[in-house]
Each structure stands twice: as structure tokens, then as C-alpha cells.
Amino acid sequence: IPPIQWYRRSMGARVLVFSLISLTYFIQALAWCVADWRRMQNTPDRIVRRSLKLLLISIPVLTALAVPGYRETFVLSEVPALTGPEESIQLDGLNDVLTINNLAFEEGRPFTLEAWIRPDKQHRGAVASHGPVALTVVAAGDGNRFRVYVSTSQGEVYLLDAKELFALDRWTHIAMTYDGREMRMYVNGRYQVCSVSVYEMSADHVSLDRQLPSPFVVKDLWPGSRFLVGNLKQSDTQARFQYSGRIGEVRLSRSVFYHEEFAPESTLSVVPETILLLHLRDGLNQIKDATGRHVADVYR
């Protein structure tokens, strides 16, 4: 999927860009006016000084217009640091992946997919992939952004981007819920207002500022596909987005586990609706699921 230009995805970024462009044209036009007045009318120096004063006044005014857009687009929200899990696994962003067989996507069923992550660089990487749905991180501004990919049978991929950025080398909890009709996303327990784009594979084109259908029905495109951690690839038509950094916990529940904002647990626990819970750590070739139903094979 091609990258989407940052200045097209954010209103704040557009404010910044067009403010700077306007400032450039204004300075050029003012310089021409001053030169013409001095050449053609022998303008007194005081008019030149007034023009320079006008220029000096206009710069902070236009800058003030651009600053809110800059802060909205690039500055990380003041997110309190979270402790995160005590143990985790390091993935290199090149070949590392965990696979779980016999964990099929159940079409039409509600579910919650969540993870503790600590990415170590700006990149586009898949944290966990379950059938047509994937939790990913993408580079944005001076941090990373939480994105959910949802593939459809029409050859389209919905891209749901959380508004809040999160820092590198710091534990972050990400979660998404699906109730059979709509999806919700959370970063560190805070509900996220999402922007929606659609990637059309046949045209190799991304449409911005779209909306999810209502109801949003997620189809099982690859029956019997594996559950993946650290990779997205489920078929030959999909990209392979390797995750780089640490992942501590991954939990899949067959219910909408979060209905409102919450404080994430540093160590996730098994609840009646849990069908997969991985407490990840280094040094193992296989990691047993805490529910006792599955085993994750570690490939490096």
C-alpha cells in the first residue's frame, strides 16, 4: 500500500503548509511594491520604514495562524508514561514472526484484539493479524500512529488511523473492538476518533476522507488462515509489514471487552471470552497460550 502524504491526511498540516506558502508570496509582493515606489516616485525613507514595519508585523500574525496546525499535526499528546509488561519479545523488523495455526476468524462474531507494544523506530509494521483484520503501526510526524487494516472482498482495504500519536521506545497499549456493526480503537485506554481511507488495489489508489459503511460487515476472506504476530501477510496479494520493537502481550477475546475508556492492565489476564492470550518473552521457540488452547511458533 503506498504511503499517504502527511499534508493530505491532516487539516493541521494543510494549515501549516498554506500559511507558509502565503507568507512567501506576501513577502515577495511587498518587496516588489517597495521597489516600485522607490524607483518610480522617489519614495521617502519613512515609507520604506513603514513597509518594513508592516512586514515585521505580518510575520508573527501568519506564524500564529500556522502554529495551531503545527501542534495539531506533529506534537505528541501529553500521554502519561505507562509501565507496561515485565517481559516481552524483541522482533527485528526483518524476518521475525510468530504464527498460530487453527485460530480462524469467525465471521460476524464480536471480538477485541489488543496488545502491549514498544516500537523502536518509525516504520510500518504489523503487530497482530487475524484474518482480514490487522493491528499495525505507521510512521507519522515525530512518532508512530495506530492503524487498523481491514481487507474486503471487493479488492479494497479500509485504513483506520487513530488521531493520537505515541512515542518510540515507550510502552503503549493499543486495542480495537468490533461488535458486528462498527469498530472502535483505543490508545492507552483512550477512545480514538479515527480518519478513514480506502486503498483500491486494482487502481493502486488511496481515497481519503471516507466513512465506514453502516453496518460495517467484516468477511472472512481466507478461511483457515493463521494468526500472526509481527507480520501481516496472509496471502500473495498482501504486503509483508514486519514489526520492529518489543511486544509484551497479545489478547484476542470473542466479545467487545471495552465499552468505554479504561486503564490498561500491564499484565493481561484470561477472562471467559478470551480465546488467545500470549505472554511473550525472549529465548523460546514456542510460546504457549495462557488459555491452554494454542501454541505460537517463533520464527527468526
Account of the protein in words:
This protein is of the alpha+beta class and 300 residues long. It folds into 2 domains: 6-74; 89-299, Jelly Rolls (Sandwich). The chain has 3 helices and 17 strands. The strands form 2 sheets. The protein has a 10-stranded antiparallel beta sheet with strand order 12-11-7-6-5-4-13-2-17-16. 32% of the residues are buried. The model is unreliable at 1-11 and 69-78 (pLDDT under 50).
List keywords for this structure.
300 residues, Jelly Rolls, seven-stranded antiparallel β-sheet, 3 helices, 35% strand
| Largest sheet descriptor | 10 strands, antiparallel
Structural class by sheet pairing and helices: alpha+beta
The poorly predicted ranges are 1-11, 69-78
Q: What portion of residues belong to β-strands?
A: 35-45%
* CATH third-level topology of the largest domain: Jelly Rolls
- How far apart the termini lie comes to 25 Å
